[in-house]
Structures
1.
Amino acid sequence: MITNETTEKFRKLKLPTPFYYYDLEVLKTTLDVIKKKASESGFKLHYAVKANHNPRILSLIASYGLGADCVSWNEIDAALKAGFRASEIVFAGVGKSDNEIINAIEADIFCFNCESIPEMEVINTFAARLGKKARIALRINPLVDAHTHKYITTGIAESKFGINTWELEEVLKKLTDMKNLELTGIHFHVGSQITRLSVFKTLCNHINELQEWFSVRNSELKIINVGGGLGINYDNPEELPRFDDYFSLIRKFVDLRPGQTIHAEPGRSIVGQCGSLISKVLYVKNGTNTKFVIIDAGMTDLIRPALYQAHHQIENLTSAGETENYDVVGPICESSDTFARYIELPETRRGDLIAIRSAGAYGEVMASRYNLRDLPQVVFSDEI
């Protein structure tokens, strides 16, 4: 929560904008809740590092005993430096490079989430050269529509992600010849920012069908990894995600076999609500039919609205005047550099502080230097 007291501290300290503000108490509360709910339902969690790899954020999450879900060697390296144990790191991604695979094998990570037969062959080759056995889980495309933005829907037909079910017979056949791979389980990820819990119920049904398929072929699976994807409420930055409903539903509808454990890879749902992008109003410009609030943050600082047409709650922290309708836009030389159209804000003037809320996930980590802009700075709640 950004209180009046917090806003006053921003003003007194004259912090240069734009900057990401992380409320560590919000993050700790979220971690307390998700850890408790996951433990009650028997889940092992691996935090999806791609959501936010800020070193302080990573270290705090690692201190709660979570594992890590990584999609590059650099993410694995950052996770290890932050205190995550190699034995609890999973390595996902459709295009792992040779060096990334070698480094991960040498680090003795918990598991590779494999997405194709060619990838399995490469991992097996390098594991043999290193005299090691690499643990893998098969990422299977469950053909489940996540009902979210097409760029973050990953489990449908013709997706670049995952192994198709009709390939599994060949996968098991080839695994018998790959002596340096150990199959530990199966893995799924149907998309991101999923708010319809029925999507996860559909996934559970597919998991049960595949469990039976593997059982008939005497293939023992120790791990069922349901991936991530649980969404947050961008309209209400103070609301925690539906952790209880999410874990309870999956635990109810997935038929675990004796000795199996269930894993999940939350990212956005852990860090999304703890972060806000704080910006300053440069100009208020009259258009033909609207007023433009031009702020000093742009799509280079938070690309989600431009890339995904994503909605974020926007607040004027320093005005209490009568409300007007504005388009909130950035300074980048792109018409897509727009954060919101025709939204109500208190009467807004040059110098007002603007908060773009729920920006803790896929905000700072996706920032760029397009237009040769500086990267946004970072401020933590315990620093002001």
Note: The longest strand covers residues 275-286.
2.
Amino acid sequence: MEIIRAITDSNLFRPFLADADGDLSTWYNWLAALRIMYGLPVPESRRELVERCTGRTQFPSGGFNTALFLTGRRSGKSRIAAVIGAFEAALAGNESRLATGEQGIVAVISPTKRQSRIVRGYLRAVFDSTPMLKDVVTDETQQGFELNNGVLIEVLAGDWRTVRGHTLLAAIVDEAAFFGYDEESKVRSDTELIRAIKPSLATTGGKLIGISSPYARRGWCFNTYQRNFGKDSGKVLVWNCPSTTMNPTLPQSVVDEAMAEDLQAAKSEYLGEFRDDVCEFLPRPVIEALVAPGRVGLSALPDTTYTAFADLSGGRADDAALAIVHREQRTVIIDRVFRYRPPFNPYVVISQMADEIKAFGIKRVIGDNYAAEFVCAAFEGCGLRYTKCEKNKSVLYTELLPRMCSGEIELLDDPTLVNQLANLERRTRSGGKDIIDHAPGGHDDLANAVAGAAVMAATIRHRVGGLSIAKV
């Protein structure tokens, strides 16, 4: 069974993709992309589209084992990912590649639990769309479905460990360019994920398919684009185009509004372009080299001056965080970090922070500008003076950078802290001003608290022989 026949067959995938009248015309450009991927003939009417979206005129007759579809938001890519997953599991005949007693898996992997739930819902809808498909599902698991041919479909959220040691018949990586940005993800980057997946596909020759909006100019998605787009000899199919190319029903007004609001973001989200205003703040190996292995926290020492910095929130969605540090000569030591997950009562969290701060003999806490009057009153009620930091977090990160690069920071062995620091991005705004912040959907509460405490400790003034001296 060819995938195009399966999509156009009213007993298979057509009810899932077609509109209320059974029309598939809005999906014709996606069908052209799938024809190229699977080595099927392309109608002459779609030739110009294919050349424009791939930058090439020649394609291998047998199709591609690896494909990367870089299309914008609302282009239908998650629905197509579900169709590909269902086809590879139920109709492609991949189970014939398995040894006796071996179970094959079609893995659909996405960066976050939320995205995985979306893809799982689409997959369930694919199999529920017709009685013929519904009957092939023999068992439903927490992560996916088992089919009557013995193949297991698993929908995973940012976890490379599950694919290791298993036999994959296909792997569909949804929103591939965004792996590593969610701090709960077990995957540090799309490069790490693809490296883990490939050996599991080796014995079956299964397909590896990445589907994503473009993002930063780094990682597997960007490197694959650079090496293969527009090159007739490329081993990987790279299909790159705006959202409206793949989804002609998307109103142009939605794109225009996004362009007017944030041009760089909209070019990435809707025009299928990699962002040229985003770069890495600091390479992960540099950050990891500053970690004291096995050190999760230090106790208060006598005759030592400590600095505390708090990052507060309202307790509904964002974390609150606290960092306590001290300085030894030119090196800032991170002693303790505390993370408070929402939902929480801000007054309770501030009381808990105050207890930790007092344990280090600190009488003043520095913090960001969040609800300054409320926070100030709450800390004063706990016997501490709260001082609003005059530097915003971009400035704090900027001043932290040279100290990290010169090795003047000792970090705790805290994976969340390391991930938040590694996922910080430098974005250039109009006028050439740089902003350093977390990636979309990410968090930096712990990183911000550490940056604030470290920068404040490195520049605090103290008295020596009656003179006021700045530590720099």
Note: Residues 3-276 form a domain with the Rossmann fold fold (CATH 3.40.50.300).
3.
Amino acid sequence: MAHFFFFILPVFVFAGPVPDTGQTKCYNATVEIPCPQPGEAFYGQDAQYKGPVRSYSKLGQNGVTLPDSATQAEGWIMTRDNVTGLIWEVKTNKDGTKNYANPNDADNTYNWYDSNPATNGGNPGTASSTDTEDFIGALNAANFAGFSDWQLPTIKELSTLVNSAIPNPGPTIDTTWFPSTGSGIFWSSITDAGSGYAWSVYFSDGRVNSSTKVGSLYVRAVRAGQ
């Protein structure tokens, strides 16, 4: 089934286009309905507006563009969203075992931590050996893929990865381009109005929600690209 959900977000700036959500079905307040015509009740839903078609490219060390057929064994370590321009870390080794010596390990989870009072909403979370700030720091210290400007994504950036055309259960992400991704909850960098919480995306069904900062959730790093 398609995914149907409402959420309210604070305003964050996200410049440029975003890919189509993949939503194809329309609903009234309770059930699915034929998509309404102009002037009818419930007209103007997501399914009635088409955004840019999703498009991705595989990248190797230093951002070299690889063939679509490239594998991780052949040096594929990043995925570029050709619509947004964002460049995403590709996860590895989803085998059910956490390995914090490898920050790209798909099984690793982290508690939310931001030491910057300008961005942490008055609550930095809890510093630990497995917090989100350490995760980003490890990638940048290692100059992962040849770059040291990796960040935890904003909630709007992270939400662009949700593909609502993928039926339940997820993961609601294009795993052809984002392998080793499960249906877990992923942190964004954005604290919410209740400073003990931060925004997150549930890739089981594409929901956007807020999660307590002490929770240990999955992460995916991003950089702005060109």
Note: The longest strand covers residues 185-191.
4.
Amino acid sequence: MLEPNWKGVPHELQNLRQWVLWKNVIRSGKETKIPWSVWDQPASSTDPKTWSDWENVVIQFDERRHAGVGYVFSKTDGMIGIDLDSCRCKATGVIAPWAQKWIDKYQTYTEISPSETGVKLWLKSDRLFAKGTNIKIPERRMNPDKDPGVEMYSDGRYFAVTGHALRGF
């Protein structure tokens, strides 16, 4: 997993009280990222009472207990998250052409995912998705464990944040 780069996270996101920690757990034989609160209990991507401010999650982060920090998308934050899966070669840093088109089109804060095999974009928008969108796309895999795909969320989900920016807001 990619170590967090606290200084790379834009202040515009840091100023929002929508932060959680996260842990890796094994569910049904698969590694899963679960949100965790600064009060050392599970957090919920739909319950703002379990979220915290940026400073507290950074202070509470402990690499022996947490895998990283996460940003929770909310109906009121004016943000959409786009997760481009299996689009980056971990060894070389090369981004697949289909994903580079998304990055170039939106020109917004974009960072490398914790696995280093995907990228995540934050867009300023008031658009809401009923359940989010998850689309698998017919492109070459850059990660043997995951098919290329695009996920989009406006609320009720969180992104694990690395701060390893490819592009700022």
Note: The helical segments are 11-14, 54-60, 97-106.
